[in-house]
Amino acid sequence: MHSVAITGTGVFTPENTITNDELVKAFNAYADRFNLAHADAIEAGEIEAKPHSSSEFIIAASGIERRYVIDKEGVLDPDRMSPAFTPRPDDAPSLMAEMAVDAIKKALTDAGKTAADVGAVICAASNHERAYPAIAVEIQQLMEIDGFAFDMNVACSSATFGIQTAADMIRAGSIRSAIVVNPEICSAHLEWRDRDCHFIFGDVATATLLEREDDAKAPYFKVKSTRCATQFSNNIRNNNGFLRRAHDEVYDRRDMQFMQNGRKVFKEVLPLVSKHIADHMADEGVVSADLKRLWLHQANKTMNDYIGKKVLGRTPENEEQPNILQDYANTSSAGSIIAFSKYSDDMKAGETGLICSFGAGYSVGSVIVERV
């Protein structure tokens, strides 16, 4: 068995940002147009009027202040309220692959390695641009990486599940290294016209390089232990497996975008995740006093505050549980890796941290790491 190290991370961030005020202005314009167009039906009680949103409502509900998106114009068009992606020919790189390559190059630079040092590519994301051929194999070709590649999807836990998959293969000796990349185009499966969720998601891509510890160059993080768990639930669901295409009647179905029963998710996921982390730490002999940092899934600030308090037994300090949610919004599987990438360099040798993601499935994955 070989020891495993995380030696590099990379983050691709889109150029466009949408602030809460910008989003609210567009949403409220859409709501006014909808209500005017359906005034008779609303008055007759046949349908409900669309309520306005507000920046205050968004902050209170989520802690989100802004988000990065691939296409800003389409999202903020009150007549559209969805990103407009120009279809690409089959011989052009896919959008997911393009984002992934950027993040991978940054991760390799961070690790002081090249594509020649990578043995496998795992593209782990919530929504894939197509069914096949695998996005991961396309990324592999664009990066000129030998070995093999495959896609996987465990929704918001895709990154941690991908890390465990890569770590297990490295431990077993079937590969020496792997890159886990998470290109999340969340704006494409979000229903921007739904007040209860129109503010939740943003776009981003992250990459994590894992290698045999013997091949690592300092500084790096030793992967001490990984753990994954799933429990079926319909409370977070998306019946559309691919990127949304505007003006196609089938995509007017509300269930073809992200849907969730928020109250049930809070009630059921919080104890599930808290117990998962506590059990993982206990089995590895890690107590709360040993834990220097928690890099949690970035879905909702209230959820993270609750989990952090349960794990540490007290309210975490900002540096102990860093949030990037306010700037990036929920980026599905990429969120915990963004937090890890941006808030790990200051950790000292011997200090312990824990990466955790959770979401639809239900799914939860955790990775205990030690700074070397």
Based on the model shown, name its key terms.
372 residues, alpha+beta, Peroxisomal Thiolase, Chain A, domain 1, 11 helices, 13 strands
What features would you describe in this structure?
Strand 4, helix 6 (135-143) and strand 5 (148-152) form a beta-alpha-beta unit. Helix 5 crosses helix 6 and helix 8 (262-283) runs parallel beside helix 9 (301-312). The chain is of the alpha+beta class and 372 residues long. The model is unreliable at 244-250 (pLDDT under 50). It has a nine-stranded mixed beta sheet with strand order 5-4-6-7-1-8-13-12-11, with helices on both faces. It has a two-stranded antiparallel sheet with strand order 2-3. Strands 9-10 form a two-stranded antiparallel ribbon. The chain has a domain at 222-371: Peroxisomal Thiolase, Chain A, domain 1. It has eleven helices and 13 strands. It has helices at residues 20-37, 39-43, 55-62, 72-75, 95-111, 135-143, 158-172, 262-283, 301-312, 325-328, 335-342; strands at 4-12, 16-19, 66-69, 120-124, 148-152, 177-185, 203-212, 221-230, 236-237, 259-260, 291-296, 352-359, 363-371. It is globular, with a radius of gyration of 21 Å. Helices cover 33% and strands 22% of the residues.
Order of helices and strands: EEHHHEHHEHEHEEEEEHEHHHEE
> Any idea what the CATH superfamily of the domain at 222-371 is called?
Thiolase/Chalcone synthase
Strand content: 15-25%
How large is the count of helical segments?
Answer: 11
Helix content class: 25-40%
* CATH class call of the domain at 222-371: Alpha Beta
By CATH, the architecture of the domain at 222-371 is named: 3-Layer(aba) Sandwich
Termini separation comes to 19 Å
The secondary structure category is alpha+beta
